[in-house]
Design goal:
By secondary structure, chain A is of the alpha/beta class. Chain A is built from 14 helices and twelve strands. Chain A has two domains: 252 residues, 3-Layer(aba) Sandwich (Rossmann fold); 73 residues, no CATH class. In chain A, strands 6-7-8-3-9-10-12-11 form an eight-stranded mixed beta sheet, sandwiched between helices. In chain A, a hairpin with a 2-residue loop joins β4 and β5. Chain B has two domains: 246 residues, 3-Layer(aba) Sandwich (Rossmann fold); 67 residues, no CATH class. In chain B, the strands form three sheets. Chain B has an eight-stranded mixed beta sheet, with helices on both faces. A four-stranded antiparallel beta sheet of chain B has the order 2-1-4-5, covered by helices on one side. A two-stranded antiparallel sheet of chain B has the order 11-12. Chain B is globular. The chains are: A alpha/beta, B alpha/beta. Chains A and B meet through α8, α9, α10, α11 and α12 of A and α5, α6, α7, β11 and α9 of B.
């Protein structure tokens, strides 16, 4: 059984509240636009928990990940981890805090330096954070991380260069260098989407094993609802910089409440759906985050809005995330941001 | 009548001292208006097979055996000039990562116009431009966006523009290599729906190369599963990819492993074990079944004897010792 069920209380690894990230688009002063990439997002992750952020490209899910890693500075909001607000600290304090949060990127072909051996790549975080008293000790830590990532035998594999490894093995190296510092949280941005289908399950299984054995938590970023459903304890569906629905994975997938989640599910079903089901999918593109629609940001594409005769409230009132079904603890509530959630089955 | 008939096609790549047999005696037939999906892992030969039809193989590849017959005409051995007449008009190709294949410094309409004018110099400019707008509308882009540059389009729209361009000279066969791989789920579903519509509207035959079984299931009538340069299973998509209440009709263990690799939202919430290891090294001869080293159901005979191809039900055939056993 996973850690989440054992520790319902004060074990928060990450608590994000009212996170806002705005970018100013380029161009002449008069033409400058404000892009609201992340527009008021709150969520938390406890020890040993896997939380997935799911959404289309451009919805802001990767920007949330980058803000959590402090690769970009949020415009406002709090990112609390280990009693510190990552949104405001800098310098030494930020570097120390980063040790607890590591990242795995999408592209294992691009994220590894082609001229570094596996040993060099995985030991670099140890050098940066001055972990281990001697070269021998650091080498042992690297071997242990490689064994953890099932790269056996570590003695031989540590001497390989990235081009000598398969895509799945490279991603295992990326996992080993994330795990070598024993982080509390790993942010994984589409960790399997560049891999061959046959290699994907192995990487996901490894991530879940490490959670079970070490109690590490994950913020798992993906556009694939089916994978999120299998891997994550909880899912947050992101649309145009906002969480529009969140809940335990099984609840959210079996009883999706927000019309956007339902559309995503339709697009991802592969059971007996054929072309007709695929064709009923949302028309058009998500609007630009530089021109967020008024009222509910999903209304211009929402099938429910049309079905209900284009109610005024969808155009004028911004729906807040509200609880549809209470979970056994608050964190596991099922919530959605839709004016007509109750009518939605 | 079949649009495309490939028989015993064998393609080798010269690499340093040796060579790699990427496609090994593959036979495949595509009927008019039919959509066929080719699946398999990277390196199994599916892209090589696709590229062989318009004869767009890299310089170090050579066709060592077999025939390709397109609309009744044999293609192997044709000159580059003769092929240029057939490409775009008879067979068009949408490349993998096609979104990045557009020229960034030209407007979309101009790029499509160029394709028409190059291959049909007899068409007047006005007629050609009218077709450009028609094509843009056909793929679901508003003609008012025709004068956009590629960077002003999203990934999904760029892929639509590439499909519009591939249809510029009204080909009878479209080969699409991983047309939805770099797109998110909503754009994927839109592109797949578009391909399905084009097929019926334009009476297009379609070969879709993908590692995504659900994409193939949504568009194709027939599926061909390739492993290590050979076809291991082929049949109607509905039959091969059926997965109802845990009952799988796919006959080859490799097909079943591919099906298990992606979680099924209507099934059980579990992560399948996946498939360990990598496809075999094709520069060396292989004895027995090519999949034996990774097969969860491997038997003694698999390591020594090449499995025969058996027909399980009409149109559904498989190359596996297990099926021989259950048939007899």
């Amino acid at each position: 059984m996973s850690m989440k069920d054992m520790n319902p209380t004060n074990d928060t690894v990450l608590s994000v509240s009212d996170l806002v990230v705005r970018f100013e688009s380029g161009g002449r002063q008069s033409k400058k636009k404000i892009v609201r990439a992340v527009d008021g997002v709150s969520f938390e992750i406890v020890r040993g928990e896997i939380v997935a952020l799911v959404g289309e490209s451009g919805c802001g899910k990767s920007t949330i990940a980058m803000a959590v890693m402090r690769l970009i500075k949020p415009t406002s909001g709090q990112i609390i981890s280990d009693g510190l607000d990552l949104a405001t600290i800098h310098g030494r304090a930020l570097q120390r805090a980063r040790r607890r949060i590591q990242m795995i990127f999408q592209d294992p072909f691009g994220s590894l330096d082609p001229r570094q051996t596996v040993m060099e790549a995985v030991s670099e975080p140890l050098t940066i954070h001055k972990v281990g008293n001697s070269a021998g000790e650091r080498k042992e830590l690297v071997f242990e991380a490689l064994r953890m990532a099932q790269l056996n035998p570590p003695e031989r594999l540590s001497e390989n260069f990235p081009h000598e490894l398969s895509g799945g093995q490279r991603q295992r190296v990326a996992i080993a260098s994330a795990m070598v510092l024993s982080p509390a949280l790993v942010v994984a941005d589409e960790p399997v989407s560049m891999l061959d289908v046959s290699a994907r399950a192995g990487i996901l299984r490894l991530m879940m094993d490490l959670r079970d054995r070490l109690g590490v938590s994950y913020l798992f970023i993906t556009h694939d609802l089916a994978t999120a459903w299998v891997v994550a304890d909880r899912i947050a569906v992101v649309y145009l910089g906002r969480i529009v629905e969140t809940g335990p994975s099984e609840v959210l997938v079996k009883n999706p409440a927000h019309p956007y989640t339902q559309a995503l599910l339709n697009a991802s079903q592969d059971g007996d759906t054929t072309i007709s089901a695929a064709a009923s999918v949302l028309k058009g593109e998500a609007p630009s985050a530089a021109a967020v629609p008024t009222g509910c940001r999903f209304h211009p594409r929402c099938p429910k809005y049309v079905e209900l005769g284009k109610p005024e409230s969808c155009r004028s009132e911004d729906p807040r995330l509200r609880v549809i079904k209470k979970g056994e603890i608050a964190r596991r509530d099922h919530s959605a941001a839709c004016h007509f959630t109750d009518e939605v089955k | 009548m079949s649009v495309l008939r490939i028989s015993d096609l064998t393609i080798d790549y010269r690499l340093g001292q040796g060579s790699v047999r990427a496609v090994d005696h593959v036979s495949l037939e595509i009927e008019a208006g039919e959509a066929v999906g080719i699946v398999g892992e990277s390196g199994c030969g599916k892209t090589t097979l696709g590229l062989s039809v318009p004869l767009l193989l890299p310089a170090n590849a050579s066709v060592s055996d077999g025939h390709i017959v397109l609309n009744g005409e044999s293609l192997i051995g044709r000159s580059e000039e003769e092929m240029n007449h057939l490409r775009w008009k008879s067979v068009a190709f949408v490349f993998q990562g096609a979104m990045n294949a557009l020229n960034p410094v030209h407007r979309i309409d101009k790029q499509i116009l160029e394709a028409i004018q190059t291959h049909e110099p007899e068409t007047s400019k006005d007629d050609a431009y009218a077709r450009v707008l028609e094509l843009i509308e056909l793929v679901g882009i508003s003609p008012s966006r025709a004068k956009s540059y590629p960077h002003e389009f999203s990934g999904g729209m760029r892929q639509r523009a590439m499909i519009a361009m591939s249809l510029a000279c009204r080909p009878s066969l479209l080969i699409a290599d991983e047309p939805t791989t770099a797109l998110d789920v909503i754009s994927q579903a839109q592109i797949l729906a578009l391909l399905g519509e084009l097929r019926s509207q334009e009476n297009l035959s379609l070969v879709m190369i993908s590692h995504d079984l659900s994409a193939i299931k949504k568009v194709c009538d027939r599926i061909v599963v390739m492993y290590a340069g050979v076809i291991v299973e082929s049949g109607p998509t509905d039959t091969v990819l059926r997965r109802k209440n845990g009952v799988v009709t796919a006959a080859h263990p490799y097909t079943r492993a591919l099906m298990g690799a992606h979680p099924d939202l209507s099934g059980e919430r579990i992560l399948a074990p996946g498939l360990a290891g990598n496809p075999p090294d094709l520069s060396k001869p292989i004895t027995g079944c090519r999949f034996a080293a990774r097969c969860p159901e491997v038997m003694e005979i698999c390591r020594t004897q090449t499995p025969p191809t058996v027909t399980i039900t009409p149109g559904h055939s498989v190359t596996c010792h297990l099926s021989v056993r259950s048939a007899s």
